[in-house]
Design a protein that fits this description.
By secondary structure, this protein is of the alpha/beta class. It has 9 helices and 7 strands; from the N terminus they run E-H-E-H-H-E-E-H-H-E-E-H-H-H-E-H. The strands form 2 sheets. A 5-stranded parallel β-sheet has the order 2-5-1-6-7, with helices on both faces. The protein has a two-stranded antiparallel sheet with strand order 3-4. The model has no long low-confidence stretch (mean pLDDT about 90).
Length: about 200
């Protein structure tokens, strides 16, 4: 009998998690995106809104919508405030991911969840396997700076708040190196998918 598996895709900023997720989606498997779910909850969950306003003031919202400038200036640039807002959003996000994976596993043998902070948030126990996507630091900085339209120094600052790739490599079940372009990434990702399918008994 084939196993039903929950599989995390993680990696630091600029590593290529999103590209790996696209390849997995193209192969026919669903991917949930933790960051998208968190943003949706920030925008639509009444309980999250109340807690954020209580913690950071009414300026956190512009009417019904999150005030992106206020959040960027007053919360996401302050490590302590990042911890506070994560403490509000993370539990709701985890519940949504758990419910979403349960629903999708009725129809699919595997469900993947892309999340940058699997290890930092100590959530690896939620998953049967964790895939780490990694790239050399200079490549990551260049990708993230261009992709997000931010200065290299800001990328480097964000990296300081994430566990190093070396530590993640010790913990991950599968590792995908992403230094050599999309064709190589596709080949490496499809190889990992075949390994998972074999392990699951497909």
């Amino acid at each position: 009998m084939q196993k039903r598996l929950r599989i995390a895709i993680t990696g630091g900023i600029g590593a290529g998690k999103s590209e790996v997720s696209k390849i997995i989606t193209a192969a026919g498997f669903p991917v949930l995106y933790a960051d998208r779910i968190a943003k949706e909850l920030l925008a639509s969950s009444d309980s999250v809104k109340r807690k954020v306003i209580d913690a950071f003031g009414p300026g956190a919202y512009d009417g019904e919508n999150p005030n992106k400038k206020y959040l960027a200036d007053n919360i996401f640039n302050d490590p302590e405030n990042v911890k506070k807002i994560n403490a509000i959003i993370h539990p709701e996000t985890l519940r949504a991911i758990s419910a979403g994976t349960d629903e999708l596993l009725r129809d699919y043998p595997f469900v993947f969840v892309e999340s940058a902070l699997i290890y930092e948030a100590k959530r690896e126990e939620m998953f049967d396997y964790v895939i780490l996507v990694y790239s050399d630091q200079d490549i990551r900085i260049d990708r993230a700076s261009k992709g997000l339209g931010i200065a290299r120094e800001e990328v480097e600052e964000r990296m300081k708040h994430q566990m190093s790739d070396e530590e993640k490599k010790k913990k991950a079940d599968f590792i995908i190196r992403n230094n050599d372009g999309i064709d190589e990434l596709k080949k490496n990702t499809e190889f990992i998918l075949k390994l998972i399918q074999t392990t699951a008994g497909e």
